[in-house]
Write the structure tokens for this entry.
Amino acid sequence: MSVKQGDFSKGKVSAIILRLGLPIMLAELVHVLYSIVDRMYIGHLNEGGTLALTGLGVCFPLITLISAFANLCSTGGATLCTIARGERDDRKAERIMGTAFTALLLIGAFLMVSLYLTAPWTLRLLGGDDETMPAALGYFRVYVLGTVPVLVSLGMNPFINAQGFPKIGMMTVIIGAALNIALDPLFIFALSMGVRGAALATVLSQTVSAGWVLWFLTGKRPPLRLKKLCLDGEQLRRILKLGVTGFTFRVTNSLTQAVVNIMLKSWGGALSTLYVGAMSLINSLREIMSLPTSGVTTGGSSVMSYNYGAKEYGRVSQCIRFMFAGSLGINLLMWALVMFMPGPLIRVFSEDEALIQLTVDCARIFFGAFPFMAMQMAGQSTFVALNYPRHALVFSLLRKVGLVLPLTLLLPSLGLGVRGVFWAEFLSQVIGASACFFTMYFLIWRNMRKSA
């Protein structure tokens, strides 16, 4: 079996990770373009661009929540599927994949109906006001209609990558993103649909991406094929138990974004709308800055899971070392860009000089400890890839729920004012990432090296 077909027990570990990780990174970069391109066009609207951008920021927690459910099935499902392949049990692996797909369909249908009906109340709760609600509600109610294809595209594409077809996985996202980029100016400007046009372009693009995923997984090329709907109770329990880590990470991100928006509105005074807009732009930067590391750790996770199932512990140790070193180098480069030349990066999204200057100041605080996130990503990815769900869950909760949330609520009242919201992220990265990495080292990495 060749590396292309997902046999990761042969060949140089770093070369395999890069072979998998680079297409995944490019795919994720293109995926981020779904929302980034929307924000770029919306931020440059002739009238109300800043308010529309802020309204989009109000939607972020709910959009993150939707993607969290994709992680719930894909993180656990793809990992368990890869371990089963390492054990040479393809029948079990296919059943895991079919169960994950069926769960995504059921969850997507439920979310679409419930979020559409509760959107006005929920967006108000998340910080929407009379100025920003028209844009927020207009965008989200169209976006949520595409929940099922969004979950299928995001949730099933990892099963393509995990089988050793990262270029096909990359095409899943490139096809949709190219369509999104083409449709955005048509719907937003030519048809004068504004934010609703941006959401419609995204929905149509994700639908095409989902169709591509299903076409490939039901075809003859992959070793594992999606043959029918099934819901194996035992496999679903295992998928959810491990997938709850990625789910919790996304949900806590959603919760944190909601609390951050509320605190910015409470402490921002006359500039509260600008502060929410600045956080929206910072979230855009964070998505882009996290992509290279995400590609390395995602590729490394597949290789780790396979070799763990095959009991090749020396190769597992090599994966961890390469993931950490690569992620640290990338994050240091990204940190330097934000610290020393943030202006050109932020001007891509807006022409409002007041918003740009405020975002520059806050971004330098928010990303001040960004290199530490290499430790968080390496530790978290290792716990998930080797099926340590409890540890993965604990450290996912620690940084967001145990650190970011209380610090966000506390620091503004300790003399830092509204800037305390951004310092909360700085401190959480230093403390949470260090705790995650060193626990992983003493519990797993050191033992893997001894067993090699």
